[in-house]
Amino acid sequence: MTLQMTSDERAVRQWWRTSIIDMKPGQIAFRGNAIEDLIGNVSFPQMIWLMVRGDLPSDAQARLFEAALVAGVDHGPQAPSIAAARMAATCGVDLNNAMATAVNMLGDVHGGAGEQCAELYYDIAVRMDAGASLNDAVRDGLDSWCETYGKIVSGFGHRFHKPVDPRAPRLMQLVRDAAAEGTVSGRFADIGEEVQAELGRQRGGRPIAMNIDGATAVIFCELGFPAPLSRGLFCLSRSVGILAHAWEQMGQGGRNKGPMPPNYLPFYEDRNDDT
């Protein structure tokens, strides 16, 4: 016999609505796939794709997606989020607190460049769909970007890696290989490389690096991820490095470590000093 729900019971059950998980006692299914069928049969990158997209990627799509995730895991303690994780670890907090401290620093300036770059690529693609050539679409897209955000173009240039970010060429080669196999179109690889070339021309011929954000944005766009997911996926990727550094720091010890050794003090700026 099927029991009819009252309006109050229906309201309670529909307070949260999700197509991600169907969970009841003795049953767990993600996007219609029983958990026992997924365990041991899909990789973690495939599971991420399933959860956010609703379907499973092909093996070739999953390999390209995984490459982007692997490339962004860490960039050392000079990255503010990694430094924050290590400082938090010396303050006596647990691993999850240290990780949360770091992830919460991944904002527009540090961590958001991939999303912004994907927005640029998608804007250029829309211009091409409207009939503009690749070159014209890139120039117009960059002009629009700079009018809105300023001269720094997210995804290009790097304070350490000049003129090449060693991660980008490898990722772009994987995209080209995937395009040759028919896994992706290669359209956004063309767009990303033309943006890089145009920025070089605007700099008087001086080369500029496509950085990790520019390269992973190419991959996420090729695979059809909406731009905002680029940031979320970067957070997942960088969380691996954040976890590793927080754990390492806990093993090294140290108490209340700040951003620089205690024998170095911040410069005091006397606003009343006219000299």
From TrEMBL:
Q: Which GO terms describe its biological process?
A: carbohydrate metabolic process; tricarboxylic acid cycle
Q: Name one GO molecular function term.
A: citrate synthase activity
User: Which keywords fit this entry according to its UniProt record?
Assistant: Acyltransferase, Transferase
Q: What class of enzyme is it?
A: transferase
Pathway-wise, it operates in: Carbohydrate metabolism; tricarboxylic acid cycle; isocitrate from oxaloacetate: step 1/2
Q: Which domain of life is it from?
A: Bacteria
Q: What is this protein called?
A: citrate synthase (unknown stereospecificity)
Organism annotation:
Ruegeria denitrificans
